[in-house]
Design goal:
The protein has 109 residues and is an alpha+beta fold. 29% of the residues lie in helices and 21% in strands. It has one domain: Fe-S cluster assembly (FSCA) (GMP Synthetase, Chain A, domain 3). It is built from four helices and five strands, in the order αββββαβαα. A three-stranded mixed sheet has the order 3-4-5, with helices on one face. The protein has a two-stranded antiparallel sheet with strand order 1-2.
Length: 109
């Protein structure tokens, strides 16, 4: 299978988003638990739809984070279409959604 026709995986989506950091908290949006899920549409026009939240609905860096996430996903070889759906239900809660490493860095136990 060539690079251009390979199937995109959820692992690739996570790896593409891991370098996107919240500038206030200085942690990856993946580790913070801001990625709620993803859908991959395969076929003639490969597409990914990511469900993402912010640390708060009033986050001043929201547009920048959405743009960075979109750009990171668009770089996946074979990806033709990217859609980011901003959601706030359920509200982000680092105590239950962040990775163990992020909780430790945030001082949550």
């Amino acid at each position: 299978m060539s690079e251009l026709t390979k199937e995109i995986t959820f692992k690739e989506i996570g790896e593409a988003l891991r370098p996107v950091f919240d500038p206030e908290i200085h942690m990856s949006i993946v580790d913070l638990g801001l990625i709620y899920g993803a859908e991959i549409r395969k076929g003639e026009t490969p597409m990914v739809k990511v469900y993402m939240s912010l640390t708060s609905p009033a986050c001043p860096y929201g547009p920048m984070l959405l743009s960075s996430a979109h750009s990171s996903l668009a770089k996946i070889i074979g990806m033709e279409e990217v859609d980011i759906d901003l959601v706030f239900d359920p509200p982000w809660d680092p105590k239950t959604m962040a990775s163990e490493e992020a909780k430790e860095q945030l001082g949550l136990f």
